[in-house]
Amino acid sequence: MITARAAATFEPVGRSVASARTFVRDTLQGWGLTDIVDDAVVLTSELVTNAVVHSGTTADVVCVRADSGVRIEVTDRYPERELPLQTTSRPIGNPDREGGRGLLLCAALASRWGVEYTSTHKQVWFHLDFPDRPAGTRSAGPALPTDALPVTDARVRVAVTQVDRTGLITAWNDDAQELFGYAAEQVIGKPLTDLAAWPHTPGTGTGVAEALQLSRWEGSYGIRGADGRVVPVYASHLRVRDADGDPSTVCLLVRERERAVLQSPQRGPGTDAAEGAERGPAGDAFEVSIGSPAPDDLDGLLQRTVERARDMLDGDAAYLLLATDDETELEVRASTGLTSARQRFARVPVEAGTGRYGSARMPAVHEDLSIVPGAVPLLANTGLRSVVTVPLKVEGRLTGSLGVAAEAPGRYSNEEALRLQFAADRIALAVERARLTELERLRRNSLSFLVEASDLLAGTLDRDQTLALMAQMTVPTLANWCAVYTVADPASDPELSYVLHEDEERIDGLKALLTRIDPPEQVRTGGARLWTAPAQTAHAASLRTSLRGLSLGDAARPSSGPSASLATASAVGGETVVLPLVARNRVIGMLTLGKSTDGHFRQENLELAEDLSRRAALALDNARLYSERTAISQSLQRSLLPPELPDVSGVEVEVIYRAAGEGNEVGGDFYDLFPIRDGAYGFAIGDVCGTGPEAAAVTGLARHALRLLAREGFGGPAVLERLNAAILDEGARSRFLTLLYGELWPQEDGSAVLKVVCAGHPLPLRLRQDGSVEPAAEPQPLLGVMEDLELYEQTVTLDPGDVLLCVTDGVTERREGSRMLGDDGLVDVLTTCTGLTAGAVASRVLRAVERFAAEPPSDDMAILAMRVPEPQDS
């Protein structure tokens, strides 16, 4: 039973033999019959040669696939040719002779063959059976000479790693450690994505996380080694499950240059093309071979189109351009035979001149490009002289342009233009459908990219981290390198703030280059604009360095000079664009994106970069505002605390202060220790209700009022009563204040006398030498609530070895769930501090508070410890 059929007709010219070979090879590969392709091509070549060269007629070639094998028929228009019979007693003669050799090959290679005559034509056919593959053999290759074998190191290392369903590494063998520098204990339990340098562009490939979920995957990427360098690898992933049904992925990795160790044999494309040809118009070899890629595989479809167009017109090169949405420009999307890969994504205008020869909307034939230089800018300096171009149109709208060129002049005429236009009309709709599918996929992935970028940028308010995120999101997704310039204020010049290249070894050279040239001009208007200075400067520097090296001679040439300059020139050798960073109607910087080695940006990527730049600009400005606010808050907080503590003779004093939060709010806790007069010191520790400017105002008022009133000779109760009146005078800005204030009097006998007033504050605790702990004061009303306060002070004598501990409620109210450290918990901690210095006591209390809960403290903390040393301590 016939399952597929393809046919083509070839003119009686010499190049038709090569075209017939290509037709048969592509057809059988499209059917997945790679095992019999070579025999079929050899037989077809000989039979078509007999038809078009020796018989001098056109040749019809038909490929028929059946259940048992493939039948290929070659028909010519010369039925009188003699058929050599092997059954005659007459010798066959020399097999190398021109006539009859095709039939001898059929007898030697084909399973069955035959010849059929009619009054108008002769048909030679042969049948090739499908091969029986030996059990256990999936693929095999012929014996090759030693110099044709793939090159590897003396010892091939295959890294074997296994990741679980969440992407965490669970196994890491010795070869993996040797290749990448990580010991197993360094990477097990970490995500493989942290090590993978994945060359992923939105909408054009699979990400590493998606690849690990596939049942099987094979391809190239990079692993970032322990030394920070990316090791290019070729990988084979296999998804497996254990006896309990838990899935994991086994990854085999070798160096990229040793990919032959893991790479699966290439298989031909699927059968859609030929089977579709059977249903469509017969006899169109171009359409049959074009249909092999999947309908939504735009790049594969375009590449096969240009290759078949070149073969159909026996050209030396071909190219295909797609029109932009506004039909004003054409973008190079596929080419073959052109000497430089830089043409990809390059743009040319649709209307390059007057008349039909200057417009891509009409077919055009250029017999000799040397007569009209620049007529086809894409082919400048390529050596190609004759070219035929035709438009691709869908419903009258220009969607692209297809061109075929040759090195010889005068190769093409209107006849070739008609043939190429017929082929372009056949493929235009499929190209447009695949292009729209790609655009939809790109837009969908671009939206996902922008959502992820917005989340990342919104997750930080640190300026340096925001700059790093901006660069890392664009490299290598949108560009090969990136530089961010920032502008402090409208009167300032742009400053180079961050540089990133996909090759880390080139970052220093790129940074040095950008430092030497003037920054791009500040332009507020949106959109990407070209910037040629980096490429021009790098090329000029590399040329000067190379000439200097040649003049010095090889012996005197500096080892790092020319190579470094050439590497930098290559790193910035492509297109460079600048996008303004505009936030709140002000230019705050510029995002510079560049391509390496003559690369060009796709319009879709530029539009994506423009959207990203708007989001990044707002995030950068928010980080700037946050940094300024944090700096102001921290400066204000420092001004509310004493710059340094005085040295108190005969008493050890230690203070620990910890502000909670991110540092952008002024805390309400404060402390102070200051001399009042000879031999007397004032100390205070307090907590203002709330945070922010209002709390800061009360904190500043309290600290400065305490010093002023104490030095005026007022006692503790009088000082706090006057401070209470001053707080109430603040009106709506007033805040509650808990305050422990006291006066310290070191004594000649080694003890210390303290007079304290505890106004609503956690009570001070006294630790004796025997380990007992007791409150050193009684609670009294807090400040800022009542006008008439009747406060009193209490006297405490600290004997040698005794400790007085004063804290804010951030210590006692430390929580984890429903648990709280509380006063009793603080007493338990202090009980263990017998014999410790004041510094050690304060440190132990802080450590106990931090260890009480896993979460960081949510309230400010101040700890003031005073200890009278024992005689042997001093």
From TrEMBL:
Please state every residue range assigned to the domain named PAS. 163-190
Protein name (database record): SpoIIE family protein phosphatase
InterPro entries, alphabetized: Bact_Sigma-Reg, GAF, GAF-like_dom_sf, HATPase_C_sf, HATPase_dom, PAS, PAS-like_dom_sf, PAS_4
User: Which keywords label this protein?
Assistant: Hydrolase
Record bears the keyword rRNA-binding: no
- Span list, region Disordered: 261-284
Please tell me whether the keyword NAD is annotated for this protein: no
Q: Give the species this sequence originates from.
A: Streptomyces cuspidosporus
Q: Which domain of life is it from?
A: Bacteria
Q: Name one Pfam family in it.
A: PAS_4
